[in-house]
Amino acid sequence: MTGDAKTLQAIKFDRDNITLDILDQLLIPYATKYISIESIEDAFQAIKLMQVRGAPAIAIVGAFSIVMETYSNLKKSQEKSRTIDDLVKSIHYLITARPTAVNLSNACLDIEKLILKEFKKEDSVDQHTFDIIYQYSVALYDDDLNNNFKIGDNGLRYITETLKAQNFTGPFSIITICNTGSLATSGHGTALGIIRTVFNKLSKDAGEKFWLDHVYPCETRPYNQGARLTTYELNYEGIPSTLICDSMASSLISTLSKQRKVKNLIAPVKFIIAGADRIVENGDTANKIGTFQLSTIANYFNSNSDKESGIKFIIAAPRTTIDFKTKTGDGIIIEERPSHELTTLNGPVLTNNGVGGKQTVGIATPGIDVWNPAFDVTPHELIDCIVTEDENVFVKNSKGEFNLNV
Ligand SMILES: CSC[C@H]1O[C@H](OP(=O)(O)O)[C@H](O)[C@@H]1O
């Protein structure tokens, strides 16, 4: 379906007719087009191409694709049905689509565990197999949505308590990176979910002593999830925002901290909020490339001002993003993506009467060597708070350690 109806629903799974459609995020914000996912292979390609992206969203689409694969197996009853071993092999293949985000591998391995509890590898895929995977997948979707609203509320509480402790009053701003909203999850979002909740609950007209005045999404080179997706979500919600290049964050913070205007804006940046693709046991966090730099910027401004009046660096993620098997960030595999994502730009031609076909333009010397890691690892030392769906947000103890395993 192609059309201009703005939507934030990244994933559509019809629980009665058993169909799965994903919003093609490579076309956002210029076109709304859903593509059908009917197999694990369809999901692998869509996840690899980043037609769907975002740690929770790729896990949910991955799980639903296994439902679709099993369902189509049952429909082709005349053919020799696949064995459980075949299905498990396909599940392991799906995991390789994007190795850094732990949610996808967690969901796939959970499904493998559930079916191997009930079946032997040589057994045939049957209705019971489908039922097990179906129940798991719809619960994964529903839990993610519920968790995101809890993350929003928990983030609001942390922000409110922080500003009260600082005796802060007036308008404040938030910087965020990549896209961590409805387009990266089952809805509402994680870091952007906190921003949604804070904007709705801490508003000037509600008579609050402090309020969220402005959001600065980083464009998030090279895939531009911020420029394309987060701005689209912020506009959709009517949240005042101004797009910045990733390289502008420190100047933005500095300008506002000196009560100088950014365009006509004066609200100081008080929080940098990012999502996560994998949080390991000590709190080191893999997230979109550029996140680590933002944490060093927050740390600079904190070490050059009274710590308590500085900028808090927040990571927001559901507990499904925590990987207790990996002790420190050194153990995280960082996905490296193709060079053309840095050396070319891909998008529709913008004409006076609308949006034309997709074009690719070169923006670097052809053949230049490129390093294109999709993520970086923010050391836990630079993270002030990890917000999950657990009511108690995670802050470091007096020894500077996170204890996430509670
Ligand atoms: C709630 S989304 C988490 C995480 O996923 C994004 O990566 P990508 O767009 O490459 O899938 C980004 O790192 C977000 O912070």
TrEMBL record:
Known pathway: Amino-acid biosynthesis; L-methionine biosynthesis via salvage pathway; L-methionine from S-methyl-5-thio-alpha-D-ribose 1-phosphate: step 1/6
GO cellular component: cytoplasm; nucleus
Entries under InterPro entries matching the protein: IF-2B-related (IPR000649), IF-M1Pi (IPR005251), IF_2B-like_C (IPR042529), Initiation_fac_2B_a/b/d (IPR011559), M1Pi_N (IPR027363), NagB/RpiA_transferase-like (IPR037171)
Residues annotated as site: Transition state stabilizer: C178
Active site: D277 (proton donor)
Chief place of localization: cytoplasm
GO terms of molecular function: S-methyl-5-thioribose-1-phosphate isomerase activity
Chemical reaction(s) catalysed: 5-(methylsulfanyl)-alpha-D-ribose 1-phosphate = 5-(methylsulfanyl)-D-ribulose 1-phosphate
The protein's enzyme class: isomerase
Keywords: Amino-acid biosynthesis, Cytoplasm, Isomerase, Methionine biosynthesis, Nucleus
Subcellular location(s) of the protein: Cytoplasm; Nucleus
The keyword Nucleotide-binding appears for this protein: no
EC number: 5.3.1.23
GO biological process: L-methionine salvage from methylthioadenosine
Family named by the database record: Belongs to the eIF-2B alpha/beta/delta subunits family. MtnA subfamily.
HAMAP family the UniProt entry points to: Salvage_MtnA (MF_01678)
Known function: Catalyzes the interconversion of methylthioribose-1-phosphate (MTR-1-P) into methylthioribulose-1-phosphate (MTRu-1-P).
Protein name: Methylthioribose-1-phosphate isomerase
Protein species of origin: Debaryomyces fabryi
